[in-house]
Amino acid sequence: MSRTFLGMPTPAPRGVGHLRGDEPFPAAARRALGDAQLRRNLRHATTTIRGKSGAVIGEVPDWQELRAAGRAIKTDTMARLPELLEQLEAAVTAAGGTVHWAADAVEANRIVTDLVRAAGADRVMKVKSMATQEIGLNEALEAAGIEPVETDLAELIVQLGRDKPSHILVPAIHRNRAEIREIFLREMPGVDPGLTDEPAALAAAARRHLRRTFLSTKVAISGANFAVAETGTLAVVESEGNGRMCLTLPDTLITVMGIEKVIPTWRDLEVFLQLLPRASTGERMNPYTSMWTGVTPGDGPQTFHLVLLDNGRSAVLADEVGRQALHCIRCSACLNVCPVYERTGGHAYGSVYPGPIGAVLSPQLTGVADNASLPYASSLCGACYDACPVMIDIPSILVHLRAEAPHPRAEAAAMAVAAYTMDHPALYAAAQRAAKLSRLAGPRGRGLPPPLSGWAASRDLPQPPSETFRQWWAER
Amino acid sequence: MSARDLVLGRLRAALGEPRTAPAPVPRGYRSTGSVAADLDLLVHRLTDYRATVHRCADADVARTVDELLGGRQIVVPPELPRHWLPDSVTPVLDDNLTAARIATLDGVVTAAAVAVAETGTILLDGAPDQGRRIITLLPDVHVCVVRTEQVVATVPDALTRVDPHRPLTWISGPSATSDIELNRVEGVHGPRNLHVIITA
Amino acid sequence: MRIALFVTCLADTLFPEAARATVRLLERLGHEVVFPEDQTCCGQMHVNTGYPDEALRLVRRHVRVFAPYDVVVAPSGSCVGSVRHQHATVARRAGDERLASRAEEVAARTHELSELLVDVLGVTDVGAYFPHRVTYHPTCHSLRMLRVGDKPLRLLREVRGLELVELPQAEQCCGFGGTFAVKNADTSTAMLADKMRNVLAARADVCTAGDASCLMHIGGGLSRLRAGVRTVHLAEILASTERSATAGERDRLEVRP
Prior knowledge:
The structure holds 3 protein chains of 3 kinds.
Chain A: H1 25-33, H2 36-59, H3 63-79, H4 81-94, E1 98-102, H5 105-118, E2 123-126, H6 130-135, H7 137-143, E3 147-150, H8 153-160, H9 177-187, H10 199-216, E4 219-222, E5 226-228, E6 233-238, H11 242-248, E7 252-258, E8 262-263, H12 269-280, E9 288-293, E10 303-309, H13 313-317, H14 333-337, H15 339-344, H16 355-366, H17 383-387, H18 394-404, H19 409-422, H20 425-435, H21 452-456, H22 469-475
Parallel strand pairs in A: 1-10, 2-3, 2-4, 4-7, 5-8, 7-10
Antiparallel strand pairs in A: 5-6, 6-9
Helix pairs in contact in A: 3-12, 16-18
Chain B: H1 3-15, H2 39-48, E1 52-56, H3 61-69, E2 73-76, E3 90-93, H4 99-103, E4 107-111, E5 114-116, E6 121-124, E7 141-147, E8 151-152, H5 155-161, E9 168-171, E10 176-177, E11 185-186, E12 193-199
Parallel strand pairs in B: 1-12, 2-3, 2-4, 4-7, 5-8, 7-12
Antiparallel strand pairs in B: 5-6, 6-9, 10-11
Chain C: E1 2-5, H1 9-13, H2 16-28, E2 32-34, H3 44-49, H4 52-66, E3 72-74, H5 77-85, H6 87-93, H7 97-108, E4 110-112, H8 113-120, E5 133-136, H9 140-145, H10 151-157, E6 163-165, H11 180-183, H12 185-201, E7 206-209, H13 212-224, E8 230-233, H14 234-239
Parallel strand pairs in C: 1-2, 1-3, 3-4, 5-6, 5-7, 7-8
Helix pairs in contact in C: 4-6, 4-7, 5-7, 6-7, 12-13
């Protein structure tokens, strides 16, 4: 049996999950840009987190060395991904866990739904997880009559507000305290009608609201930040304690993990546990990190299932340039420094993965044609590359993916003509002289066709000079 | 074909043959043992993230616990040193207590496995003086006793001191969230009060 | 020193004053400037818009034209960035390893203007005179691709008569981004609005930078607002002396009825 027969790298299927938007980025962004409250919330939040993160990164003398190590570990991981996953599977199984493989979102949703049913539960509690957002697990569970309860505060805000997450780390970043108070008053059963918009009061309301759920729910579903192939250890990094609740209290724990989250050795955690909190929430260490290896008799869930999810990742791995996007540790530093994200917010990207990393990851997971506008949703300013704790060269991947995106026919024709002209200096000089005709359009570009009309909508056009440089040089 | 074979086959196809060997990992960062543990730094970092720090001799732990939890019902792990408990508290031994029962108790006193100075982190590994994960989760006050020899400088140091096969909980300050306008707010689902007693 | 000018298509066609200023400046410092006339465009627009196959012929041309020169300078961080970080990639993508290695050789000898002055020629005081209140926008490719750091500021601080004022949030992108400015015109405009707000907050008469493209963008916005702040390329400021005409005198963004 040949290798190719065993399956070629395949993008995530359509019709399930949340990797594809309903409209191209420019259209969605246009609407977001007009929302003054959203703009204010985003500006405040991203400015705050940039300041915090910069301060704690400044405290460690070896940040660049940690970044370089993080990149190298991830590069090594991707080069050995199938073998490391087999090693992880063996270690988890030996420690009393059960490992499942899911080729795509449909399969992962079915596996999890069956496991919940087998446990006899009609309600599950969830720790914030990008992978389960990606595959649309909540919708699948609801369709099967199982109630998923999000326990992360921001996810709870999103779920109660019937909203969509807009940030990897802080899914409700687009909401301010006043809006959160309104959602709680409207949607939270039994909430104190005198609830104020003090963040501490809002957090306390969530604590009261979820306590009974934590104590009475028999099945929890989590994601994973890291999975150590060498030992079979899973790690979840969190702040509120909802993660600890879900990982500790129920009888059954189901963890859904993108296959790229595996790391080779226990020692490798020493790099990522330093990089992630500082780049992410801007803390030296997040309040809680839980690590577990299979099942511990007498302590925590006595049944543990690990679901390893492909859903397009093999297709990303197949692209030697784009592969780096799989190095992402979901810290969201690139979102927080991105001038585009800061102004449009996460919903404009259409996918659960917004911001710069989303603009390179989503199109690769789905195939570029299904997210063709995302590689262009960047000015290529490079701030994301500098901020990335594992040094993913996002600008280079964006440029690489633009070459794979379907191009408008008129644009492709114009670019071909331009390249031909610029490869013939005499034609080029003639074209330069012709450019002066654009003087007729005036600084406001009257009568210009798109895309130049887009420029002229807010910016005056430069008026061509009386002579080009090469004319001046020739006459010198 | 099983999903396992399908996924692994896809990944092998994606990587192609021959595979290029990646470069060795440069570990030029401060690795294990490169920095001395600094107790004052630990105190500063714990305090900075709203843990309350107490320093005393081992013999005086009970007096501090009395100040913090006197008159209250507390859960204790199976092998907590008894001399840490004052007469003023009502200890409830965790012999597989139910979650509902633990949730009714006021506090918990445990030892620790390791503390990390640079990040202000205490690390629990489920040893008999720390107990099951649940007992440090549901009560609202966690008093954790750290001996100075358990303090290490950095995260790499801490990882060498614990067994990956035990359930591990890394705690850096009380439960908190940054979900509301990215400001850290203490007190969501875990204990809202974290007291660390460092004994000489 | 004999220095080949890589003029860039944008400066050649729309902003020749920046290129002429580069020539005047280097000649004043005692160097010989040559202009290889077969040069056209480095191909960055094609690469960044998703047309590396079309860019290949432009990369090949650029490498052929500039291979004979030991020192190449361009008054653009962005175009030098493309030469350094994209040319070899475009060649390798097309399977032309020989072109890639030649592109890397040319790239190693190609400098952005402030790099050439400070690193290669070892000067920061170029003898310039520019009696205006100036703020400096570090363009993204100069800042993060080339890492020119404070070299432009060191040059500006030595200019007689020049009052240098800090640009708030200087390191934020102005929103140009080439094809981004037209494909995502709304987001680009939102970024430009914040950049202009900061330029105006600096209360400068002149906003300068090392890239004509970003200046075209910022200047186009300021002109539309009738903000009364000019954009002037760094080369023009450094070329100005007590004897020469004041840089940027010709209003490139002249307002016509």
